[in-house]
Each structure stands twice: as C-alpha cells, then as structure tokens.
Write a structure and sequence with these properties.
Length: 323
C-alpha cells in the first residue's frame, strides 16, 4: 500500500513538473512571436512618413511600443517569480510601478482610438481640424498622465507604510508585494474600477454613435462605417480582457489553496489569455486588417530584410496571428 502511494505521489510530481515546463516553453514561444511581429510593425511605422502624420497610426504605434515594453517586463517578472529569484526592494518597486503604468496606458490608448474613429465617421468635416499635431501631443500627454495616477499612488502608499530598514532587503518581486495593507489593495481596486467604468462608457458611446451614423450613411460610406464598428467592438473586447487581468490574482489565490498543479496551469493560462491575447489584437486590428499598413508591412519585411529565414519567420507569424 505504501509503495502504491509513493508511486502515485511520484506520478503527480512528474505531471506537475512536465506541465510547468510545457507551459513555460509555450509562453516563451508566444512572447517571442509577439515581440517579433511588433518589432516589424514598429519598423514599418517608422519607415513610412504617411503613417507618422495620421492620428490613428500614431496611436497604433503607441500601443505597439507600450505592449512590447509591458510584455518584456511582465515576462521578466514571471521568469524571476518562477525561479524564486530575489531582487532589491527599490528596483522591484520601480519595475512594478512602470509595469502598472504600461498596463493602464494600453486601454487608455484604445479609448483614444475609438474617439478618433468617432470623429472620423461622425464629424468628417471637422476631422482634419481636430486631428492636428498639437491635439495629438495633448492627447498622448493626457493618456500618459492618467495612466500614471494609480501606479504613483500605489508607490507613494507603499513607501509611506514600509519600514525604512525594509527598503534595503531583497525579495521575490511581484505587484502584490506593494499591497501589504488592506486599504492599499481596496483603494487601488476602487481606482481601477472607476477608470475602467469611465473607459467602457466612452467606448459604448462611440459604438452607438458610429452605429447611428452607419444607418444613415450612403452606400459609399457603408463599408467604412461598418469597418469602424468592428474596430470599436474589437477594442471593447480588448478592454474586457484587460479588466479581467486585474481580477486574476484573486482567483489564483483561491486555486492556490486547493491544488498547486491547477494553480500553476491557471497562472500560465491567465498570462496567455489576459496579457498576451489582448496585446495580439492590436496588431491584428490595425496591422493586418488595414490594407495600406499591411502592404507596407509586407514590403518592408520582405524587401528591406534579405535573409530568407526572416521572410519565412514573417509568413509564419502572420499565419499564427491569422489563425
């Protein structure tokens, strides 16, 4: 009986180790593909002057930059957590603050994209006057300012309660480390709820307005308005996935108390579904669905980069994104 129990325990341990290794490899492959495609798209954006003069492409480029930076930081923190690698408290707090800032910046940029489509469809005669370089600069400044409020509040609140001697210690870095007190977690959660409710209202408003404009549009503009409706709907789905990302830690804590294998699988699944997946939608929406950008992307990827293995990787990434 004891030998049977030992075999069962050994089998469970092997299954746990195999599942963790498989999920780790899967995540790193997906992160590599994501970063490769994003780098190609950033390169395409920088090479073509037309894209640098249009608001929607500038906002798209910002999502590429913030999502790529967020992916690198999140993946680095995930690897360090899996290896239980301790780092100094101060760099950890800075990393967590920057990661939260980038996490909020993406959905705010999505809202700005929806507003840009609303102006283009519902106020076409004023679009050129509204979409100026000064307006774009102010819009980007507002996005980064709002996205900095919650992480800066979290950082200041953390520094206010942590003992001075603890700042010299080392720890396994995670965002939850900065939420030691209940009031910190509750205040942060409340701020996120207000922010995302505000963004949902704006996206719903733009969708309804564009839908109304689509009903009264001429046959020539039907295609453009329908495309804009699908774009706003995809952005709403992205925003939903981003919101779910902040609920994951609470679900993971519950599963952790039940089963370690289920916890490990759930954590990697959440990373793929709620961090990688919403960031993959932006390249799909604006990079592959936009004909002008897609042709420019293909041209620069296949003409400016000569090695055949890069071309093969490019087509493989496009296939995976389309699937």
């Amino acid at each position: 009986m004891q030998g049977s129990g030992d075999n069962s325990s050994l089998s469970n341990n092997l299954l746990y180790d195999f599942s963790r290794v498989f999920m780790k490899i899967t995540v790193q492959i997906l992160v590599g593909i994501f970063l490769y495609v994003n780098c190609l798209m950033i390169y395409t954006f920088l090479r073509k002057e037309t894209f640098r003069e249009e608001t929607r492409y500038i906002l798209f480029a910002q999502t590429l930059f913030t999502d790529s930076a967020l992916m690198v930081l999140s993946d680095t923190l995930s690897i360090m957590n899996n290896l239980f690698y301790p780092i100094h408290i101060i760099p950890c707090a800075i990393l967590c603050t920057v990661t939260t800032n980038l996490t909020i910046c993406t959905p705010l940029t999505l809202v700005a994209m929806c507003l840009e489509r609303y102006v283009a469809i519902c106020m076409p005669l004023r679009h050129a006057d509204i979409s100026t370089s000064r307006t774009r600069f102010r819009g980007l400044l507002i996005i980064w300012s709002i996205s900095s409020i919650i992480p800066l509040f979290t950082l200041v609140a953390y520094l206010a309660v942590i003992p001075s001697g603890a700042l010299l210690s080392y720890t396994v870095c995670s965002v939850e480390l900065m939420l030691g007190k209940d009031w910190q977690a509750q205040a942060r959660s409340s701020m996120f709820q207000v922010l995302f409710l505000f963004m949902i209202i704006i996206i719903a408003f733009t969708y309804i307005k564009i839908m109304i404009a689509a009903r009264g549009a001429s046959s020539e503009n039907k295609k453009l308005t329908s495309r804009s409706l699908r774009t706003v709907a995809l952005h709403a789905f992205q925003l939903f996935l981003c919101i779910m990302q902040f609920l994951n830690p609470y679900l993971e804590m519950v599963v952790l108390k039940i089963d370690m294998l289920a916890y490990a699988i759930l954590r990697y699944a959440n990373f793929i579904i709620f961090i990688i997946a919403p960031r993959c939608l932006s390249p799909l929406i604006y990079g592959l669905r936009d004909e002008m950008f897609f042709h420019a992307l293909k041209h620069h990827a296949l003409c400016d980069m000569k090695p055949s293995f890069i071309k093969l990787a490019f087509y493989a990434c496009l296939f995976l994104f389309c699937v």
